[in-house]
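Protein in question quoted for reference:
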Amino acid sequence: MVTTQGIPREIIQDLFHYFMTVGWPQLFATFAGFFFGFDVLFGFIYHLVPGCIANLNPPGLAGAFFFSVETFATVGYGDMHPQTLYGHVVAMIEIFIGLMSLALMTGIMFARFSRPRARFMFSRNAVVRPLDGKLTLIIRAANQRQNVVQDATAQLRMLRNEVTSEGFEIRRVIDLHLLRSQHPVFALGWTIMHVIDEMSPLRFETAETLRLADATLILSLSGTDENTGQVLMARTEYQSDDIRWNSSFHDILEDTDDGSLHIDYGKFHDIVPFELLTRTSDLQAEMRDIAAADGAADGAAVDVAVRRPE
């Protein structure tokens, strides 16, 4: 957990970001508070000059408040209306501010509803297992909407603490090269793999060294939604304790008797020890499954991500 200080939080100067990131209950509470406070303010202004509003009902400040509500919303029931120059001027100012406020609220609501949201699912853990004779770091990803995300791109980075030769402690960001960092049609699943070879920053790492370095893996995934044309982005993080060594993901793909493919996402996060896997299945068959990068299911491309054993 990280806490910060020394930077003032200027909400008034960054209202759009606040409204786009705050939760829905806080947003509606903010709008309701502004609406009530605004109407109370102008109701009090009307109340300062008695008689400026005709047919004020109920009399007094309560009637002025309800007239302010009607004026702000441009309802105009017709019973209460300004009857002096003072009342008309104040009503004009309130209507102008009310129209601008309603336009801004409408824009914020539209921006929040239209903001692209990626429904990408990532495995709870990353696994490290031998693959094609080399240790490989593997992470599962899936498209929960199961629509086409074009030209999906994945980037994997590691953050870890290091000490320079001068004894200076730094938090270094290290790029981890992916076996395949792009996917032309990300519709169902994607197995994201980093080969731990002689060029890999992880070649000398173990579970213990990663824990001592407070290492964190950050996976970023983005792509273009084919239906809306919007760019979708999502990311996930894995601490050192989230990496399972000498383990593999459970198979979630089955061939049915009628020749179709059945994908069980209920097993998406399941992990089995690699030793058990090699005793109960043919490793060469698994390699063929992983090499089958794009199978077809009813005409839709299916990524190797969902093929056994990953």
Remarks:
- DSSP finds seven helices and 18 strands in the chain.
